[in-house]
Every structure is written in structure tokens, then in C-alpha cells.
Design a protein that fits this description.
The protein is 47% helix and 9% strand. The protein is built from 15 helices and 11 strands. Bound molecules: alpha-D-allopyranose and manganese (II) ion (2 copies). The site of alpha-D-allopyranose (AFD) has 9 residues, from loops. It comes from Spirosoma endophyticum.
Length: 424
């Protein structure tokens, strides 16, 4: 569905005065505000194709209607998000859920919405109906070389699909592991996984990256073969310069210090990208910033510090992707909220007075260091984020506009109340 620009203009006009008033708070700090707005305009966050339908739990799924029935409709949904916020200019596909039958046409369609293709994701955590061997006991780690080969071939096929669309990265998330003590020889599982990843790595085009995503538990509950950042780092280091660790915020054990993990990976040049979401317990896949916004800010604080130290480009040096989806919200509303939360955390982290922070640290002035961070975190940067959107044709309040235009009702009218998204 294409959003007509008139509705955005009308929406913005009616809110313009209120917005300018809020923005005037920044009048004394124009320089800082300007720099932040420019960075926000450049910063794009990829939307996962699997988050456009209502997510379920293993107990049930409550579809909301009007879900995208095919890849074209998924692209249309991301196009709609991007038209509203001008910050969701990419889509991350999951194969085989999103196999593009006509890549040229798909690329063209995405181009019409101003969308690029971010990392492509392989899937060896499910058996497909046309698949000859099962992944019940793992894929790249499997004891049977034929199963490993099938999983390797699948990953290489995913790379080929991505190449046809202009993607530049492959994300490998494995459910491989074991659920009971004694089930798995850890050493062999690691080595087999490394060897299999090595074969996939060898098939990467020269300008591609491979993201190795780790997860502490689930679906295996005793061990995961890529279970933490340490093992992901080890795989990525052994694989070579095109391999990196991908941090999914929900994939840690409770209370893990993710910002410190991020700082270390960045320092080693091995941080590849992110899957943003939030959680209270495990891989809850809740809206980014909905539970622990301060943690999200602290992560961005390390990102900016570490990226600036290495001369990296905030917008393009790392993969920025959302991986959130759940049961009780309209997925498009949820994604608008996630993108906004990420932008807010990024903008707040840009405000941190880094010189003063370093001085406080060097002087062991703990209270002052905390003040500096919290001062930035407690600044209301919503007008800056809204201004960034306004300047590039987005809506001042994307969620409010989405609601006032009854977008979900329109989608239901177009696709039906029982339309179910392909994928999980
Ligand atoms: C998993 C991971 C991973 C994977 C996805 C599948 O977060 O990114 O691709 O779910 O839906 O938990
Ligand atoms: Mn993920
Ligand atoms: Mn996950």
C-alpha cells in the first residue's frame, strides 16, 4: 500500500506549531541539535520480514488480520513503515520463508518504496516439507556429514538469493545444541560447526560479511553450540575477516552486561551487527526499549564511543536490524515503536559529553560519570527525532498517523481478516 504524501503533509501541518515549540528548547544548543538531526536522518534500521505478521508463543497465536501473504506484501508493509518514519529503509529476509521467485521484480518493487535488502537469514532450525534429511539433532554440528552438507548447501543457496537482491551479508543463527547432559560431544560439535561454517564462508562473495548470531538457550535447553558471544567470537575469529559476531539483545542469560560485550567486540573489530528487541526474561522479542530503555542507551553509548574510536560510520559500518515480534500488538505499530525507541537511544547517546566523561573516569569521579550519562539519558530528544523525520518527508508522529488513517483496517480490507504471514 502506497501512502499518499498529502496525508503526511496534512498530519504534519496540523502538528507543526506544537512541534516547533518543543524544538525551541534546543535553540541554545543548535550545533548539537543539528549534528544529531543529521545523524538521525542517515541512520536506517532494517525490518525483519518475519516480524510483519503477529508472532506467536508455543501456546498459541492470535492473528490480527491483514497480514502480508507473500514477499510482495511484506515489502509493501516495510514500505509503509518507511514512508511514515523514513528510517526503516531496509528489509531483512528469511529463506525459505521469503524466496524471491523473480528477484529482478522484487528488487524493483523494493526500489519503488526506497528499500534496500539487508542481511539474508538462513533457516536450519526447521525441517521443510521438501527436505530429505532432518535437523532434529542439529544442522551444521550434526553427527551425519550428509546432514551437515545439506545445511551448508542451504546456506550457500541463501547467499545466492541475497546476491540477486543486492544483500551484503548472511546471518547464521543455529538452534544446534543439546537438551540433555551426555547427548553431545561439545568438542566435536564445535569443530563440526566450525568446519561447516568454513565451507559457507568460502562461498561468500568478496564484499559480503557473515554474521554469527549466538543464543544462550532455546530451543535446546542444556547446551547451545553457538551459545554466547565468546563462542561466536571464536568462530568469527577462526573463520576470517569477513566473519563477525551478531548481538541479539534477547539472547543472553539474565542481567548480562550487554554494553560491555559490545565494547569488547567493537574493540576487537568483530562486532558485525544487531538484532534489537527487549526482554524481561529470555528471548521475549518485545518491542525495543519497552522494558530496559536505559540499557539500550548504555549500549548505544558504547557503540558511539567504540565506533568513533575506530573511525567507523554510524549508519553503515554495522548491521542494524530489529528482531522482535509477539502476540498482542499490531506488528506494524510495534515496529514503529521499536524504530523510534532505537532512534531515541541513539540520539541520547550522541548527546553524552565524552570529554567530560573521560575526565571524570580518569579522576575516578564515579558520581560525576554517572551524572553525565544520566543527564543525556534524561534529555527529551523526541523533538529531534521528529524533526529528522520531518526534514526527509516522514510524519511527525508516525504511529498517530498510522492510526488516524486506519491503516490496519485498510490492510484487512485488501488482504482479508484471516490473512496469515508466511514464516514462523
Ligand atoms: C531466533 C533468532 C534469529 C532467527 C529467528 C528466527 O533470534 O535471529 O533468525 O529467531 O525467527 O530466535
Ligand atoms: Mn535474532
Ligand atoms: Mn531470538
Amino acid at each position: 500500500m502506497q501512502l499518499d504524501t498529502n496525508s503526511i503533509d496534512n498530519h504534519n501541518q496540523s502538528r507543526l506549531n506544537a512541534h516547533k515549540n518543543k524544538l525551541s528548547y534546543w535553540a541554545d544548543e543548535v550545533e548539537k541539535a543539528e549534528a544529531t538531526i543529521q545523524k538521525l536522518i542517515d541512520f536506517q534500521i532494517a525490518i525483519p520480514s518475519w516480524a510483519l505478521g503477529t508472532g506467536g508463543t508455543r501456546f498459541g497465536r492470535f492473528a490480527g488480520g491483514g497480514e502480508p501473504r507473500n514477499l510482495e506484501e511484506k515489502i509493501a508493509d516495510v514500505g509503509l513503515l518507511h514512508a511514515l518514519n523514513r528510517s526503516s529503509g531496509a528489509i531483512s529476509l528469511h529463506i525459505p520463508w521469503d524466496i524471491p521467485t523473480d528477484p529482478k521484480a522484487i528488487q524493483e518493487l523494493a526500489g519503488q518504496y526506497g528499500l534496500a535488502f539487508d542481511a539474508v537469514n538462513s533457516n536450519t532450525f526447521q525441517d521443510q516439507s521438501d527436505q530429505s534429511l532432518s535437523y532434529k539433532f542439529g544442522s551444521l554440528q550434526h553427527t551425519d556429514a550428509a546432514v551437515r552438507q545439506q545445511a551448508i548447501d542451504h546456506n550457500i543457496e541463501v547467499i545466492r538469493h541475497g546476491e540477486a537482491l543486492g544483500s551484503k551479508a548472511l546471518t547464521v543463527w543455529l538452534s544446534d545444541g543439546s537438551s540433555f547432559p551426555g547427548q553431545l560431544n561439545f568438542r566435536k560439535a564445535f569443530q563440526r560447526t566450525l568446519d561447516s561454517l568454513g565451507e559457507i564462508y568460502a562461498a561468500l562473495p568478496s564484499d559480503w560479511k557473515m554474521f554469527v548470531e549466538y543464543k544462550a538457550f532455546e530451543p535446546n535447553f542444556y547446551s547451545m553450540t553457538v551459545g554466547d558471544w565468546g563462542s561466536s567470537f571464536l568462530y568469527a575469529s577462526k573463520l576470517g575477516p569477513k566473519a563477525y559476531t551478531l548481538v541479539d539483545l534477547g539472547h543472553h542469560l539474565p542481567n548480562a552486561n550487554i554494553e560491555q560485550i559490545v565494547a569488547i567486540l567493537l574493540n576487537e573489530g568483530k562486532l558485525g551487527g544487531f538484532h534489537f528487541n527487549d526482554s524481561k526474561y529470555g528471548d521475549d522479542d518485545l518491542t525495543a526499549g519497552s522494558i530496559k530503555p536505559y540499557q539500550l542507551f548504555l549500549i548505544f553509548n558504547e557503540l558511539i564511543e567504540g565506533m568513533d574510536a575506530r573511525g567507523m560510520n554510524h549508519a553503515s559500518s554495522l548491521g542494524w536490524m530489529i528482531d522482535a515480534s509477539h502476540n498482542v500488538k499490531d506488528p506494524l505499530e510495534d515496529l514503529l515503536q521499536s524504530v523510534e525507541a532505537i532512534q531515541l537511544a541513539y540520539a541520547q547517546a550522541l548527546l553524552v559529553d565524552r570529554v567530560a566523561l573521560e575526565e571524570a573516569r580518569e579522576a575516578n569521579d564515579v558520581a560525576q560519570a554517572q551524572e553525565i550519562l544520566q543527564d543525556a539519558f534524561r534529555t527529551d530528544v523526541r523533538p529531534l527525532v521528529a524533526e529528522a523525520r520531518l526534514r526527509v518527508g516522514g510524519a511527525l508522529q508516525p504511529l498517530a498517523l498510522y492510526r488516524s488513517l486506519n491503516m490496519r483496517q485498510q490492510l484487512i480490507g485488501e488482504r482479508g481478516a484471516k490473512a496469515v504471514a508466511t514464516g514462523l
